[in-house]
Amino acid sequence: MTSSPVLPSRDDPVAAAASEWVGGPAGRRAVPGRRWWNPLRIALAVGCVALALGVLADKPCHDRSWESREDRAVWTSLCYSDVPFLYRERGLADGDVVYRDTLLEYPVLTGGVMQTTAYGAQALQGMVNPDPPDRAIAESVRFYEITAVLMAVAALVTIVATGRTAPSRPWDALLVAASPLLLFSAAINWDLLAVALTSVAILAWTRERPGWAGVLIGAGVAVKIYPVLLLGVFFLVALRAPERAVAFRRFVLATVAAATTWAVVNVPVALWAGDGWRYFFTFNIDRGADFGSIWYALQLLAPDLLRNDIDRLVLGAGLIMLGVVVVIAMLAAEPPRMTQLAFLAVAAFLLVNKVWSPQYTLWLLPLAVLARPRWRELVIWQVAEVLYFAAVWLYLAGFFDPENPVISGDVYAWSILLRVGALVWLCALVCRDILRPEHDPVRASIPSGGLTAA
User: Fold this and answer.
1) Of residues 353, 344, 346, 338, the one with CA closest to residue 325
2) Are 165 and 206 in contact (CB under 8 A)?
3) Is 174 exposed, middle or buried (0-12, 13-18, 19+ CB in 10 A)?
4) Is the per-residue pLDDT at 12 higher than 80?
5) In this structure, is residue 3 part of a structural domain?
6) Considering the entire predicted model, what is its pTM?
7) How far apart are the first and last CA of the chain?
8) DSSP character for 66?
9) What long-range pairs does 74-78 form, CB within 8 A, spacing at least 24?
10) Other Cβ atoms within 10 Å of 287 Cβ, number
11) Which of 12, 134, 197, 359 is most deeply packed, by most CB within 10 A?
C-alpha cells in the first residue's frame, strides 16, 4: 500500500499533461495530505461550485416557475425538472397523502421524502408569501428549492464516500465533484438519494461492515430499485474470494440486512395502502419503450422492428448482459475488484432498461470513477451524456409542440445510440482491466487483500 495519496498529475496521463498549465506534475516530495486543503476538502469545494452552477442553470425555469410542460422555454433552456411538476400532478399541492390518496410511481422512501418535503414547502411558502397569486405553483417552486438542497447534500455524501472507498486514491472524488453530470442532473429527480446510499454501502463493504452495507442497500432499494444489483456483485466477490467461507458469511449478512431493512420500510406501507404501494411495480411492468432507452431509439429509426411486446426482449437482453458479467468475473485470472463488477452490473441494467432518463446516469458516476479513474475515458463518456442531455430536452420541445420541432426524431435516436456506444466502450475498457489486470489503474495502488473489496 502506498504511504501517501496517489497524485493525479503523476498517475494519469491527461492530468499530467493538464498540470503543465499550472507548473507541472507534483514533485516527489509533495505531501498534500498534511495541509488543511486535503483532497477530500478540495473535492467537496468543487462539488459545491458544480451544484451551485447547476442551480443557476435552472434559473430560467425557476423564474418562470415551471408553469407548464407546454412552455417551450422549459425545454429549450435545458432546465427541466420533474420535481415542481410532480408536486402539482401527484396531489401534493392539494394535501393528498402519497400512496393512500394518490398513485405514485416511486418506491416508498422516495415517496416519504416527497411527502415530507411537501410539508416543508408549504410551511416555507407561508413564511415567504402566505397569499401568492397561484398557491400551487408558488409552493411547487419552494418544493424544488428544498429538494435541490437535499440532493446537494446527497451529492456531497457521494463525493465523500467515493474519496474514502480507495484510501490511497482520495483525489478520485474530484472526478465525481467536477462532473458535468452532477451539474446538469442533480435536481431533475430524487436519484441522488439512491446514489448516496449506494456509495456509502460500497464504502461500508470495503471497511468490512457487511451488515451496514446491507442496511444501506435495503434503504437504497426503497428509493430506486437498482442498488439491489450490489447483492449479486457481493455474491460474485464471494465466489472469487481467497477465503470463500468468510466472504460468503459477509454476503449472507449483507443480504439478510438488506431484505430486513427493505421489509421494515415497505411492509407497513403495503398494509396501509396496498394499491398505492403496488403501483410502482405495475407501472414499471406495464410501461413501454420510453425516452432514452435503446428500445425507444429503435422504434424511432425502425418502427416495424419492435412490433411485439418488448418485455421479453428486455428480460432476455438483461439476462444475457448480466450473464456476461458473471462469465468475465469467473474467467478473470485475478479476482475482479468489487467496484468494477458493480459498474458493469448497473451499466448492463441501464443499457437494456425500458427507460433511461438523463439523471439515471448519476447512478453510474461514482461507480465509473471507482472502476476506471482515468480522465480521458471519463471525459469522452460524459461528453456523450451531455450531448444526449441537450438532445432529449430539444426533442421534447417538439414532442409537446409537434408543429415546431427543434430536432427530428432521427437526430434524437442517434443521440441515444451515441450515449449507448460511449457506455459500451467504457464497459469494454473495464472488462479488459478485469481480464488483463496490468491495465487496471487502481490495482497497483491498493493492497492485494483489498482488491476484491474495492
Assistant:
1) 344
2) yes
3) buried
4) no
5) no
6) 0.94
7) 13
8) T
9) 75/393, 75/394, 75/396, 75/397, 75/400, 75/406, 76/393, 76/394, 76/397, 76/406, 78/184, 78/389, 78/390, 78/393
10) 13
11) 197
Q: Which of 379, 444, 366, 376 is nearest to 43 (CA)?
A: 366
Comparing 20-29, 104-113, 234-243, 267-276, the range with the smallest average pLDDT is: 20-29
Q: Is residue 14 part of a domain?
A: yes
CA 105 to chain CA centroid, nearest Å: 18
Domain residues for 352?
A: 8-24+35-450
Let me know if residue 30 belongs to a domain: no
Which three cell numbers, joined as nine digits, stand for 70? 407546454
Give which of 173, 181, 184, 218 is closest to 198, Cα–Cα. 218
- Count of CB atoms situated within 10 Å of the CB of 42: 18
Q: Percentage of the chain surpassing pLDDT 90?
A: 84
In the chain, the number of structural domains is 1
Joined grid coordinates for residue 191? 436519484
Backbone angles phi and psi of 102, in degrees to 5: -145, 145
pLDDT digits (tens, 9 = 90+) for 282-334: 999 988 899 999 999 999 999 887 776 788 899 999 999 999 999 999 999 99
* Within a domain: 1: no
